[in-house]
Design goal:
Layout: E1 2-7, H1 11-22, E2 27-33, H2 36-46, E3 50-54, H3 62-72, E4 77-82, H4 87-95, E5 100-103, H5 108-119, E6 124-125, H6 127-136, H7 144-151, H8 156-165, H9 171-178, H10 182-195, H11 201-210
Organism: Actinophytocola xinjiangensis
InterPro entries: CheY-like_superfamily, NreC/VraR/RcsB-like_REC, Sig_transdc_resp-reg_C-effctor, Sig_transdc_resp-reg_receiver, Tscrpt_reg_LuxR_C, WalR-like
Domain HTH luxR-type: 147-212
Length: 213
């Protein structure tokens, strides 16, 4: 079981997140907290594998709690959970070592995927956050040849999926665009991560964009 701590000062949100996670079967919520300081204390007590941190909390906000967790319990992987995927929050979270950034209006599947990815040592960003990151990181001409060479190993269908990932689309949106099921798209994305040696879909998106896909 993947042990999870939820830190959110809104009881309704925390309850909903717990319900979603525990429906997965392999995720167990071991503790909850309503502010960042309490989250750090609870993490030290319960030693969760993954901590879900709301960014806007009293006493100590999620970004502050992230910094403390990286200092006192580096083994715990943190996923930021917020209503606002704004540029400063995203950059601060990624710079602070967050293993994921999920918006509160994400689908249950995205939330579960984010927790599993964090536990596996990968990173997951909501599609909207992926689009924001792509907007912040400009394409580099010097990377074009390398990116093109890496994408050359892909099949035509894989290259199509990579290009759609580069548009910041979710798996469901890619499925509708490509005429395939969401489950099939998940398989393709996993294959892309392996073949391109990427840690997450943001890296796939950057590669595809650099290559001009």
């Amino acid at each position: 079981m993947i042990r999870v701590l939820i830190a959110d000062d809104e009881p309704l949100i925390a309850t909903g997140v717990r319900t979603v996670l525990e429906s997965a079967g392999d995720l167990a919520v071991v503790a909850t907290a309503t502010d960042g300081s309490a989250a750090v204390r609870a993490a030290l007590e319960h030693r969760p594998d993954v901590v879900l941190l709301d960014i806007t909390m009293p006493v100590l906000d999620g970004l502050g709690a992230l910094g403390e967790l990286r200092r006192v319990l580096p083994s715990a992987r943190a996923v930021m959970l917020t209503s606002y995927g704004t540029e400063p929050n995203v950059l601060a979270a990624l710079a602070g070592g967050a293993a994921g950034f999920v918006l509160k209006h994400c689908t249950p599947d995205e939330l579960i995927t984010a927790v599993r990815a964090a536990n596996a040592g990968d990173a997951f960003l909501s599609p909207e956050v992926t689009r924001l990151v792509l907007g912040l990181v400009g394409p580099a001409a010097g990377r074009r040849a390398e990116a093109g060479a890496r994408l050359a190993a892909l099949s035509p269908r894989e290259a199509q999926i990579a290009a759609l990932v580069a548009e910041g689309l979710s798996n469901a949106e890619i499925g509708r665009r490509a005429g395939m099921s969401e489950t099939t798209i998940k398989t393709y994305v996993s294959r892309l991560l392996t073949k391109l040696d990427c840690a997450n879909r943001v890296e796939v998106a950057l590669l595809a964009r650099d290559a001009g896909a």
